[in-house]
């Protein structure tokens, strides 16, 4: 997504792609959320790839900006506030899920921000169990309601999950800089059927347009904008593609080429801001890996390492991580 400025149009149920500009400037109207990036060691990158693949295995979140940091070259995260007064949480803004969760317990020997509802005057108890299954194990807790602040936007009495078990995220979470996940997907995949963050923002009337857009910085902070797009982040016009499903941000895939060769017959794809993995059916990804000369990571079937970029994203539990 770093090559493109991607507009997620909730109102018209479509995705827009425009060539990303290099300069990062803020417009006067929308709400901006900064995004950041952290470089990884080889071992950490391997861990990021495997955790991202487990996410795929488990499947078969007023114009306002937020600065977004890059987690493990795979996930971009930014700051929100939960409670009154607001308690800082760094979250992954994930178009591949639809719930907001933050931790209320800090794993041993980690420095994660935690949410303490006893310190919030706007907290409301819910107590319903929240549970999501990852490839390596569960993440669970309970639903609660409180004020959630995203940039200059506020969602009062918003239902989210406070989590006390994060074993399903493994070492990637213990080493990572993010605390929780804010899903930007659709209502149909929301755990517990609770309103999604974007649904709540649209219904609150705070957004000039029912749109959000990602600018992912390359060796610099990126930005997530709610309520519009920032013309300083792209050049030319948007090319729009209608959604084929209101679950993930899923679109029709016309084809995938490696050079002049067609390398996929897959007909649909998901645009997922929660991972930088390129995923597809096992047989197709294996063929692409062979063409690229990619090497298996630690012998793990379906996961390869290569120094040559590819372009496949598809909703299947097999992944290839490529480096620019």
TrEMBL record:
The keyword Protease applies. InterPro entries: Aspartic_peptidase_A1 (IPR001461), Aspartic_peptidase_AS (IPR001969), PEPTIDASE_A1 (IPR033121), Peptidase_aspartic_dom_sf (IPR021109). Keywords: Aspartyl protease, Hydrolase, Protease. The keyword Protease applies. It comes from the Eukaryota. GO terms for biological process: protein processing. Belongs to the peptidase A1 family. This is Peptidase A1 domain-containing protein. It comes from Effrenium voratum.
